Amino acid sequence: MQVLISGAGIAGPTLAHFLSRFGTQVTIVEKASTMLTQGHNIDVHGTALNIINKMGLLTELKKRNTTEMGTRFLDENGKVFADFPVEGTVGSPTSPFEILRGDLADLLYQATRQDGNIDYLFGTTITEVVENSEEKVRVKLSNSKEEEYDLLVAADGQWSPIRKAVFPTDAVQVINKGCYCVYATVPRTNADSDYWDIHQALRSRAVHTRPDNHGTLRFFITTMPPTPAQKQAWDSAARSHNRKTQMDLVRSELADIPYGPVPRLLEGMAEAKDLYFQTVSQIRLSKWSKNRVICLGDTAYAPTPFTGMGTSLAINGAYLLAGHLSQLKEGEHPRRAFEEYEKEFKPFVQEIQNIPWFVPGIAHPQYAWTRWLFKRFIATMAWFVKIPYLAKKYGPKDKKYPEGLVDDLDAPYPQFSGLAQQQVVTA
Protein backbone atom coordinates (compact mmCIF):
# COMPACT_ATOMS: atom_id res chain seq x y z
CA MET A 1 0.00 0.00 0.00
CA GLN A 2 1.26 3.47 -0.95
CA VAL A 3 0.14 6.28 1.36
CA LEU A 4 0.63 10.03 1.05
CA ILE A 5 0.33 12.14 4.20
CA SER A 6 0.06 15.93 4.10
CA GLY A 7 1.52 17.40 7.29
CA ALA A 8 4.53 16.49 9.46
CA GLY A 9 3.08 17.65 12.77
CA ILE A 10 1.86 15.18 15.38
CA ALA A 11 -0.78 13.05 13.64
CA GLY A 12 1.11 12.46 10.38
CA PRO A 13 4.37 10.98 11.74
CA THR A 14 2.46 8.95 14.36
CA LEU A 15 0.36 7.41 11.62
CA ALA A 16 3.44 6.79 9.48
CA HIS A 17 5.16 4.96 12.34
CA PHE A 18 2.33 2.47 12.72
CA LEU A 19 1.72 2.09 8.98
CA SER A 20 5.37 1.15 8.55
CA ARG A 21 4.97 -1.73 11.00
CA PHE A 22 3.01 -3.72 8.43
CA GLY A 23 5.12 -2.73 5.43
CA THR A 24 3.23 0.29 4.11
CA GLN A 25 5.21 2.75 2.01
CA VAL A 26 4.58 6.27 3.31
CA THR A 27 5.44 9.69 1.90
CA ILE A 28 4.97 12.75 4.11
CA VAL A 29 4.90 16.19 2.49
CA GLU A 30 5.42 19.26 4.67
CA LYS A 31 5.23 22.86 3.47
CA ALA A 32 7.90 24.05 5.94
CA SER A 33 11.49 23.68 4.77
CA THR A 34 12.49 22.04 8.07
CA MET A 35 10.76 20.77 11.20
CA LEU A 36 9.23 23.72 13.02
CA THR A 37 10.60 24.18 16.53
CA GLN A 38 8.08 26.72 17.79
CA GLY A 39 4.85 25.82 19.49
CA HIS A 40 2.96 26.09 22.70
CA ASN A 41 2.90 23.76 25.68
CA ILE A 42 0.92 20.57 25.21
CA ASP A 43 0.49 17.43 27.26
CA VAL A 44 0.00 13.78 26.46
CA HIS A 45 -2.11 11.60 28.72
CA GLY A 46 -4.52 8.72 28.87
CA THR A 47 -4.68 6.40 25.89
CA ALA A 48 -2.34 8.66 23.90
CA LEU A 49 0.39 8.21 26.51
CA ASN A 50 0.03 4.44 26.21
CA ILE A 51 0.38 4.79 22.43
CA ILE A 52 3.56 6.84 22.85
CA ASN A 53 4.81 4.05 25.09
CA LYS A 54 3.88 1.48 22.44
CA MET A 55 6.04 3.46 20.02
CA GLY A 56 8.99 3.14 22.42
CA LEU A 57 9.17 6.90 23.00
CA LEU A 58 7.99 7.33 26.59
CA THR A 59 11.45 7.69 28.11
CA GLU A 60 12.45 10.32 25.56
CA LEU A 61 9.15 12.13 26.07
CA LYS A 62 9.94 12.43 29.78
CA LYS A 63 13.40 13.82 29.00
CA ARG A 64 11.86 16.64 26.98
CA ASN A 65 9.56 17.80 29.77
CA THR A 66 9.15 21.58 29.89
CA THR A 67 10.10 21.64 33.61
CA GLU A 68 6.83 23.41 34.45
CA MET A 69 6.16 22.88 38.17
CA GLY A 70 2.45 23.65 38.18
CA THR A 71 -0.16 26.32 37.53
CA ARG A 72 -0.77 29.56 39.46
CA PHE A 73 -3.45 32.24 39.26
CA LEU A 74 -2.40 35.82 40.01
CA ASP A 75 -4.51 38.82 40.98
CA GLU A 76 -4.33 42.33 39.55
CA ASN A 77 -1.27 43.09 41.72
CA GLY A 78 0.64 40.00 40.68
CA LYS A 79 -0.03 38.15 43.94
CA VAL A 80 -0.75 34.42 43.76
CA PHE A 81 -4.24 33.56 45.02
CA ALA A 82 -4.40 29.93 43.88
CA ASP A 83 -1.77 27.39 42.94
CA PHE A 84 -1.89 23.85 41.60
CA PRO A 85 1.56 22.22 41.84
CA VAL A 86 2.14 19.06 39.83
CA GLU A 87 3.45 17.36 42.95
CA GLY A 88 0.97 16.78 45.76
CA THR A 89 -2.07 18.05 43.87
CA VAL A 90 -4.93 16.23 42.18
CA GLY A 91 -5.96 17.62 38.80
CA SER A 92 -3.31 20.28 38.19
CA PRO A 93 -3.71 21.91 34.75
CA THR A 94 0.00 21.18 34.34
CA SER A 95 0.71 17.61 33.32
CA PRO A 96 3.71 15.53 34.43
CA PHE A 97 4.15 14.91 30.68
CA GLU A 98 4.14 18.56 29.61
CA ILE A 99 6.10 19.06 26.38
CA LEU A 100 6.41 21.73 23.71
CA ARG A 101 4.59 20.96 20.51
CA GLY A 102 7.76 21.48 18.50
CA ASP A 103 9.67 19.09 20.75
CA LEU A 104 7.03 16.39 20.37
CA ALA A 105 6.94 16.85 16.60
CA ASP A 106 10.73 16.58 16.51
CA LEU A 107 10.64 13.47 18.71
CA LEU A 108 8.23 11.81 16.28
CA TYR A 109 10.27 12.93 13.29
CA GLN A 110 13.54 11.62 14.73
CA ALA A 111 11.84 8.30 15.46
CA THR A 112 10.64 7.90 11.85
CA ARG A 113 13.05 9.75 9.55
CA GLN A 114 15.41 6.79 9.10
CA ASP A 115 12.63 4.27 8.62
CA GLY A 116 13.08 2.65 5.22
CA ASN A 117 9.32 2.73 4.61
CA ILE A 118 8.94 6.47 5.29
CA ASP A 119 10.06 9.42 3.14
CA TYR A 120 9.81 13.08 4.14
CA LEU A 121 9.53 15.81 1.51
CA PHE A 122 10.06 19.20 3.18
CA GLY A 123 9.26 22.42 1.40
CA THR A 124 6.64 20.51 -0.57
CA THR A 125 2.87 20.82 -0.76
CA ILE A 126 0.01 19.23 -2.65
CA THR A 127 -1.09 21.82 -5.18
CA GLU A 128 -3.96 19.80 -6.64
CA VAL A 129 -5.87 16.60 -6.03
CA VAL A 130 -6.21 15.59 -9.66
CA GLU A 131 -8.14 12.36 -9.10
CA ASN A 132 -9.86 10.71 -6.14
CA SER A 133 -11.49 7.64 -7.64
CA GLU A 134 -12.32 4.06 -6.75
CA GLU A 135 -8.93 2.95 -8.09
CA LYS A 136 -6.47 5.61 -6.91
CA VAL A 137 -5.76 9.12 -5.72
CA ARG A 138 -3.56 11.25 -7.96
CA VAL A 139 -1.98 14.54 -6.90
CA LYS A 140 0.21 17.31 -8.22
CA LEU A 141 3.02 18.41 -5.92
CA SER A 142 4.71 21.79 -5.68
CA ASN A 143 7.93 20.17 -6.97
CA SER A 144 6.12 19.76 -10.34
CA LYS A 145 5.72 16.01 -9.96
CA GLU A 146 2.43 14.17 -10.38
CA GLU A 147 2.09 11.04 -8.23
CA GLU A 148 -0.41 8.24 -7.58
CA TYR A 149 -1.21 6.66 -4.21
CA ASP A 150 -3.65 4.21 -2.69
CA LEU A 151 -4.83 6.81 -0.21
CA LEU A 152 -4.23 10.39 0.87
CA VAL A 153 -4.27 11.48 4.52
CA ALA A 154 -5.00 15.13 5.24
CA ALA A 155 -3.18 15.89 8.50
CA ASP A 156 -2.36 19.49 7.66
CA GLY A 157 -4.22 21.29 10.43
CA GLN A 158 -7.57 22.85 11.14
CA TRP A 159 -7.40 25.12 8.08
CA SER A 160 -6.38 22.23 5.83
CA PRO A 161 -6.12 23.11 2.11
CA ILE A 162 -6.57 19.41 1.28
CA ARG A 163 -9.88 19.29 3.12
CA LYS A 164 -10.96 22.47 1.37
CA ALA A 165 -10.09 21.02 -2.04
CA VAL A 166 -11.76 17.63 -1.55
CA PHE A 167 -14.74 18.12 0.77
CA PRO A 168 -17.78 20.33 0.13
CA THR A 169 -18.05 23.51 2.15
CA ASP A 170 -21.20 22.37 3.94
CA ALA A 171 -19.39 19.27 5.25
CA VAL A 172 -17.21 21.42 7.52
CA GLN A 173 -18.59 23.19 10.57
CA VAL A 174 -16.30 25.84 12.05
CA ILE A 175 -17.40 26.80 15.56
CA ASN A 176 -15.91 30.11 16.67
CA LYS A 177 -15.62 30.16 20.47
CA GLY A 178 -15.45 33.96 20.57
CA CYS A 179 -11.87 33.85 21.82
CA TYR A 180 -8.56 34.92 20.28
CA CYS A 181 -5.05 33.80 21.12
CA VAL A 182 -1.72 35.53 20.54
CA TYR A 183 1.43 33.56 21.26
CA ALA A 184 5.19 34.08 21.10
CA THR A 185 8.47 33.00 22.68
CA VAL A 186 10.30 35.74 24.60
CA PRO A 187 13.65 35.87 26.45
CA ARG A 188 13.56 34.46 29.96
CA THR A 189 14.78 36.42 33.01
CA ASN A 190 15.69 35.34 36.54
CA ALA A 191 12.45 36.91 37.77
CA ASP A 192 10.30 34.52 35.73
CA SER A 193 8.73 31.63 37.61
CA ASP A 194 8.76 27.92 36.83
CA TYR A 195 4.96 27.87 36.89
CA TRP A 196 2.27 28.49 34.34
CA ASP A 197 1.24 31.91 35.61
CA ILE A 198 -2.22 33.17 34.65
CA HIS A 199 -3.10 36.81 35.24
CA GLN A 200 -6.71 37.78 34.65
CA ALA A 201 -7.41 41.33 33.57
CA LEU A 202 -10.86 42.85 33.27
CA ARG A 203 -12.62 43.16 29.92
CA SER A 204 -12.25 39.42 29.33
CA ARG A 205 -8.48 39.25 28.93
CA ALA A 206 -5.83 36.93 30.36
CA VAL A 207 -2.03 37.02 30.26
CA HIS A 208 -0.18 33.69 30.46
CA THR A 209 3.51 32.90 30.90
CA ARG A 210 4.93 29.37 30.84
CA PRO A 211 8.51 28.11 31.27
CA ASP A 212 10.21 25.76 28.86
CA ASN A 213 13.32 23.61 28.72
CA HIS A 214 15.06 25.86 26.17
CA GLY A 215 15.83 28.83 28.40
CA THR A 216 12.99 30.95 27.04
CA LEU A 217 9.50 31.88 28.18
CA ARG A 218 6.27 31.07 26.36
CA PHE A 219 4.03 34.14 26.52
CA PHE A 220 0.48 34.27 25.25
CA ILE A 221 -2.68 36.25 25.76
CA THR A 222 -6.25 35.14 25.35
CA THR A 223 -9.14 37.53 24.99
CA MET A 224 -12.88 37.44 24.42
CA PRO A 225 -13.77 40.85 22.95
CA PRO A 226 -16.94 42.03 24.72
CA THR A 227 -18.26 44.37 21.99
CA PRO A 228 -19.01 43.81 18.29
CA ALA A 229 -16.51 46.52 17.33
CA GLN A 230 -13.73 44.90 19.31
CA LYS A 231 -14.59 41.48 17.91
CA GLN A 232 -14.44 42.91 14.39
CA ALA A 233 -11.02 44.39 15.11
CA TRP A 234 -9.68 41.03 16.29
CA ASP A 235 -11.27 39.20 13.36
CA SER A 236 -9.70 41.62 10.90
CA ALA A 237 -6.27 41.34 12.51
CA ALA A 238 -6.43 37.55 12.47
CA ARG A 239 -7.37 37.48 8.78
CA SER A 240 -4.82 40.12 7.78
CA HIS A 241 -1.76 37.97 8.58
CA ASN A 242 -0.04 41.35 8.94
CA ARG A 243 2.36 41.37 11.88
CA LYS A 244 2.28 45.15 12.39
CA THR A 245 -1.52 45.23 12.39
CA GLN A 246 -1.64 42.40 14.89
CA MET A 247 1.01 43.85 17.22
CA ASP A 248 -0.61 47.30 17.16
CA LEU A 249 -3.88 45.72 18.28
CA VAL A 250 -2.20 43.67 21.02
CA ARG A 251 -0.38 46.73 22.38
CA SER A 252 -3.56 48.80 22.47
CA GLU A 253 -5.51 46.01 24.16
CA LEU A 254 -2.93 45.40 26.90
CA ALA A 255 -1.80 48.99 27.52
CA ASP A 256 -3.97 49.43 30.62
CA ILE A 257 -3.03 46.17 32.38
CA PRO A 258 -1.04 46.92 35.55
CA TYR A 259 0.48 43.43 35.75
CA GLY A 260 4.25 44.08 36.03
CA PRO A 261 5.80 41.91 33.27
CA VAL A 262 3.40 43.01 30.52
CA PRO A 263 5.57 45.82 29.02
CA ARG A 264 8.61 43.51 28.86
CA LEU A 265 6.55 40.72 27.39
CA LEU A 266 5.10 42.99 24.71
CA GLU A 267 8.57 44.22 23.80
CA GLY A 268 9.81 40.66 23.53
CA MET A 269 6.78 39.61 21.52
CA ALA A 270 7.46 42.34 18.97
CA GLU A 271 10.88 40.80 18.31
CA ALA A 272 9.75 37.16 18.41
CA LYS A 273 10.27 34.98 15.35
CA ASP A 274 7.25 32.82 16.11
CA LEU A 275 4.34 35.23 16.60
CA TYR A 276 1.10 33.25 16.37
CA PHE A 277 -2.27 35.04 16.15
CA GLN A 278 -5.59 33.36 15.47
CA THR A 279 -9.19 32.77 16.43
CA VAL A 280 -9.95 29.82 18.70
CA SER A 281 -12.26 27.53 16.75
CA GLN A 282 -13.49 23.96 16.64
CA ILE A 283 -13.59 21.91 13.47
CA ARG A 284 -16.40 19.39 13.04
CA LEU A 285 -16.34 17.42 9.80
CA SER A 286 -19.59 15.59 9.09
CA LYS A 287 -17.83 12.66 7.39
CA TRP A 288 -14.10 12.20 7.78
CA SER A 289 -13.41 10.51 4.45
CA LYS A 290 -14.28 10.88 0.79
CA ASN A 291 -13.37 7.94 -1.41
CA ARG A 292 -9.60 7.54 -0.93
CA VAL A 293 -8.98 10.74 1.07
CA ILE A 294 -9.19 10.64 4.88
CA CYS A 295 -8.86 13.48 7.40
CA LEU A 296 -6.92 13.08 10.63
CA GLY A 297 -6.30 15.18 13.75
CA ASP A 298 -7.21 18.87 13.72
CA THR A 299 -8.17 18.59 10.05
CA ALA A 300 -11.19 16.50 11.04
CA TYR A 301 -11.81 17.35 14.69
CA ALA A 302 -9.84 20.26 16.17
CA PRO A 303 -11.24 20.49 19.72
CA THR A 304 -9.72 23.90 20.76
CA PRO A 305 -6.92 24.33 23.33
CA PHE A 306 -9.52 24.63 26.11
CA THR A 307 -9.99 20.87 26.10
CA GLY A 308 -6.30 20.09 26.48
CA MET A 309 -6.96 17.17 24.14
CA GLY A 310 -5.86 18.25 20.66
CA THR A 311 -2.55 16.38 20.79
CA SER A 312 -4.02 13.29 22.40
CA LEU A 313 -6.80 13.14 19.80
CA ALA A 314 -4.22 13.35 17.01
CA ILE A 315 -2.21 10.46 18.48
CA ASN A 316 -5.28 8.36 19.30
CA GLY A 317 -6.76 8.89 15.84
CA ALA A 318 -3.50 8.03 14.08
CA TYR A 319 -3.20 4.75 15.99
CA LEU A 320 -6.80 3.74 15.29
CA LEU A 321 -6.60 4.63 11.60
CA ALA A 322 -3.38 2.66 11.17
CA GLY A 323 -4.85 -0.27 13.06
CA HIS A 324 -7.93 -0.52 10.88
CA LEU A 325 -5.85 -0.12 7.71
CA SER A 326 -3.72 -3.04 8.90
CA GLN A 327 -6.83 -5.26 8.81
CA LEU A 328 -7.43 -4.75 5.08
CA LYS A 329 -6.80 -7.47 2.55
CA GLU A 330 -4.18 -6.77 -0.08
CA GLY A 331 -5.59 -4.52 -2.78
CA GLU A 332 -8.79 -3.80 -0.83
CA HIS A 333 -10.26 -0.30 -1.05
CA PRO A 334 -9.56 1.58 2.22
CA ARG A 335 -13.25 2.43 2.65
CA ARG A 336 -13.86 -0.25 5.29
CA ALA A 337 -10.92 0.94 7.40
CA PHE A 338 -12.03 4.57 7.10
CA GLU A 339 -15.55 3.69 8.23
CA GLU A 340 -14.36 1.61 11.19
CA TYR A 341 -11.96 4.34 12.29
CA GLU A 342 -14.71 6.95 12.24
CA LYS A 343 -17.32 4.67 13.81
CA GLU A 344 -15.03 3.76 16.69
CA PHE A 345 -13.48 7.16 17.36
CA LYS A 346 -16.16 9.73 16.56
CA PRO A 347 -18.26 9.25 19.73
CA PHE A 348 -15.18 9.96 21.86
CA VAL A 349 -14.29 13.00 19.75
CA GLN A 350 -17.82 14.37 20.09
CA GLU A 351 -17.65 13.93 23.85
CA ILE A 352 -14.41 15.92 24.00
CA GLN A 353 -15.76 18.65 21.72
CA ASN A 354 -18.87 19.08 23.86
CA ILE A 355 -17.39 21.97 25.84
CA PRO A 356 -19.58 23.39 28.65
CA TRP A 357 -21.39 26.59 27.70
CA PHE A 358 -19.48 28.66 30.27
CA VAL A 359 -16.06 27.78 28.78
CA PRO A 360 -13.95 29.79 28.04
CA GLY A 361 -15.95 32.72 29.40
CA ILE A 362 -15.54 31.71 33.05
CA ALA A 363 -11.78 32.20 32.80
CA HIS A 364 -12.13 35.59 31.08
CA PRO A 365 -14.16 37.78 33.48
CA GLN A 366 -15.43 41.03 32.04
CA TYR A 367 -16.32 42.75 35.31
CA ALA A 368 -14.76 43.09 38.77
CA TRP A 369 -17.55 41.12 40.43
CA THR A 370 -17.24 38.18 38.01
CA ARG A 371 -13.48 38.16 38.57
CA TRP A 372 -14.10 38.12 42.34
CA LEU A 373 -16.40 35.12 41.99
CA PHE A 374 -13.86 33.28 39.85
CA LYS A 375 -11.09 34.00 42.35
CA ARG A 376 -13.18 32.57 45.19
CA PHE A 377 -14.00 29.47 43.16
CA ILE A 378 -10.42 28.79 42.04
CA ALA A 379 -8.96 29.49 45.49
CA THR A 380 -11.40 26.99 47.00
CA MET A 381 -10.50 24.40 44.38
CA ALA A 382 -6.79 24.93 45.00
CA TRP A 383 -7.33 24.20 48.70
CA PHE A 384 -9.55 21.19 48.05
CA VAL A 385 -7.18 19.36 45.68
CA LYS A 386 -4.35 19.54 48.21
CA ILE A 387 -6.23 17.45 50.78
CA PRO A 388 -3.78 14.62 51.59
CA TYR A 389 -6.40 11.87 51.28
CA LEU A 390 -7.25 12.89 47.70
CA ALA A 391 -3.62 13.33 46.71
CA LYS A 392 -2.79 9.88 48.07
CA LYS A 393 -5.78 8.16 46.48
CA TYR A 394 -5.65 9.75 43.04
CA GLY A 395 -2.08 10.99 42.74
CA PRO A 396 -0.09 9.54 39.81
CA LYS A 397 2.70 8.11 41.96
CA ASP A 398 0.34 5.82 43.85
CA LYS A 399 -1.67 4.64 40.87
CA LYS A 400 -1.04 1.08 39.67
CA TYR A 401 -1.69 0.03 36.09
CA PRO A 402 -2.00 -3.35 34.39
CA GLU A 403 1.11 -4.61 32.66
CA GLY A 404 1.80 -2.70 29.46
CA LEU A 405 -0.11 0.45 30.46
CA VAL A 406 1.35 3.63 31.89
CA ASP A 407 -1.83 5.70 32.22
CA ASP A 408 -5.60 5.35 32.36
CA LEU A 409 -7.42 4.53 29.13
CA ASP A 410 -9.71 7.40 28.16
CA ALA A 411 -10.19 6.59 24.46
CA PRO A 412 -10.65 3.43 22.37
CA TYR A 413 -7.47 1.33 22.47
CA PRO A 414 -8.01 -1.95 20.63
CA GLN A 415 -5.02 -4.18 20.03
CA PHE A 416 -4.22 -4.83 16.36
CA SER A 417 -2.01 -7.79 15.52
CA GLY A 418 -0.42 -5.85 12.67
CA LEU A 419 0.79 -3.15 15.08
CA ALA A 420 2.19 -5.47 17.75
CA GLN A 421 5.48 -4.51 19.33
CA GLN A 422 6.99 -5.08 22.76
CA GLN A 423 6.23 -2.29 25.23
CA VAL A 424 9.30 -0.38 26.40
CA VAL A 425 7.89 0.51 29.80
CA THR A 426 5.58 -1.59 31.94
CA ALA A 427 3.82 -0.53 35.11
Automatic annotation (TrEMBL):
Gene Ontology molecular function terms on file: FAD binding; oxidoreductase activity
Origin superkingdom: Eukaryota
Keyword tags: FAD, Flavoprotein, Oxidoreductase
Annotated FAD-binding domain residues: 2-352
Entry keyword annotation includes Flavoprotein: yes
PANTHER family named in the record: MONOOXYGENASE, OXIDOREDUCTASE-RELATED
Name the UniProt record assigns to this protein: FAD-binding domain-containing protein
